[in-house]
Amino acid sequence: MHGDFLAEVQGKEGKLIGGLALLSGYINKVRQEEENVLYVISGDMVQGSLIDSEYKGISTIEIMNYLAPDVVALGNHEFDYGLPHLLFLEKVANFPIVNANLYIKKYNKRLMQPYLIINKAGFDILFTGIITEKVMDSLRQDKLIGSFVTLEDASLEVGKILNAYKNDDIDLTILLTHIGFESDIQLANLLKSEWGVDIIIGGHSHTIMEKPAKSNNILIAQAGVGTDQIGRFDIIVDDDTNSIIDYKWQLIPIDENLAQPDTKLQEYINSFQDTINRKYNTIVCKFAQKLTHPKREVETSLGNLIADAFSDVAECDIMLVGSGSIRSKELGPLVTLKSLLSCFPFDDVLNRYIITGKNVKEIFSHIMRPENRNSEGECYQVNSKVQATYSDKEQKLISIIMDGKEVKDSSLYKICIQGYHANNSVANLNISQKELLEAGETRLISTSAKGVLEEYLRTHQNIKRNVEGRLVYL
Predict the structure, then answer these.
(1) N or C: which end of the chain has fewer CB within 10 A?
(2) Of 272, 304, 338, which residue constitutes the final position of a domain?
(3) pTM, whole model, 2 decimals?
(4) Is 417 in a helix, a strand, or coil?
């Protein structure tokens, strides 16, 4: 859900779309109409809104307590405020959080409740959860926590749970994952049929599905991101064979025609929003035009501005800004502190390194490859000095130009990276820590990227940016 709490007005008719009040109204309606309903979430409840970041997820969990999901799984963003805070959030939650493959290494103990059996109308339904390798990225500095993070290891963890706890009375087995749709399909094919997983309900890749996929006889579904829609399964289970004999899947658009908004929940959300408005409704700057960030996999006008702002402060040749750290699809022309922090909520350090041209080519060959642009990879926005061209047909980097000149293998270049991406440089950038540090001339540019961006915009009015061919795919 990524903190998508508030409804938006869309279209000429001014129709309300999404928001938790309308979503809750629909959930309440279904719970009243149907006897046996389970509401589940596959991770990333937190992060993505100012309400969430201001209260470090506590507001989100309190609001989720109101929605009362039956079971949820962890997403990578549940770890954004640190492991100790996540454990605190779990205590605040009135609902169970399941995960099978995160461990406290020293004691070989699972971090979370590994499974949950819910009884509905005499049917026992077993849930367990699996998390993406992205969590290991964010926890790399924490030596206490380990995980069986490869798909093969994760599948064996599922097998452990089901071998130990799936008895004859279990009628339905559901796996809540946060690994992305493509990885869901791979995971389904690794699961033994004897384990009897019936459904995978996934997250992380924000995939919109008009109908579920089916692989290894397992139904696989996702319902996108935010609160503009919800996935609904209507399932008939055979108690004798413990199998699904019929189902209907719907991707339900959440709007004011679907159900009456939950006014009590809206009042509760407004209590947080009022505080945010009082604190953050100040004007930072005005752009010359609205800037957009419609897709993280491509160059965007908003991404160009942010990369240029950081590059200006870092005095670097190459600025790499994680596209996923830009959380709004558009910003401006009027930019308030509230809209800016909603757009760029992650507060990370900015580090500058000196690397060879050979390393530069390896980085861009890695981040621009097609398999990285599948909504699961780490994509980047770059500053105006850079022009990189990649051939999808040939599967290779065609050229990379810096300040109008071809990058040379033996030349040295200053590159600035957010701390999260630098700490996980091998997976994200295909460059080792040793290669980043080899020249020895590293510098911490800022302890707060968010603060740098705010100060830059306050002193640069009427900014204009376009998509101009910094990242070109042939």
Answers:
(1) C
(2) 272
(3) 0.72
(4) strand
Secondary structure letter of residue 368 according to DSSP: T
What's the pLDDT score for residue 79? 83
Tell me how far apart the alpha carbons of residues 80 and 77 are, in angstroms, rounded to a whole number. Answer: 5
Q: Which helix (H) or strand (E) holds 135?
A: helix 134-138
Bridge partners (DSSP) listed for residue 397? 390
Which residues, including other chains, have CB under 8 Å from residue 206's CB and lie 6 or more apart?
222, 224, 225, 375
Domain annotation covers residue 130 = yes
Look at residue 70 and give its three-state secondary structure. coil
Same domain, 463 and 330: yes
Which residue range(s) make up the domain with 469? 281-473
Q: What are phi and psi of 396, to 5 degrees?
A: -155, 160
Give 161-192 pLDDT, tens digit per residue. 999 888 878 889 999 999 889 889 999 999 99
One domain, residues 440 and 336: yes
Distance of CA 241 to the CA centre of its chain: 37
Q: Characterize the bridge pairing of strands 412-418 and 318-322.
A: parallel
Domain end point (choices 235, 255, 272)? 272
Q: Under DSSP, is residue 401 helix (H, G, I), strand (E, B) or coil?
A: strand
- Predicted confidence band at 450 (pLDDT cuts at 50, 70, 90)? very high
With a CB cutoff of 8 Å and minimum separation 6, the contacts of 400 are 360, 361, 364, 386, 387, 388, 389, 406, 407
Q: Are strands 97-98 and 71-73 parallel, antiparallel or unpaired?
A: parallel
Examine residue 333 and say whether the peptide bond preceding it is cis (omega within 30 degrees of 0). yes
Indicate the helix (H) or strand (E) that contains 114. none
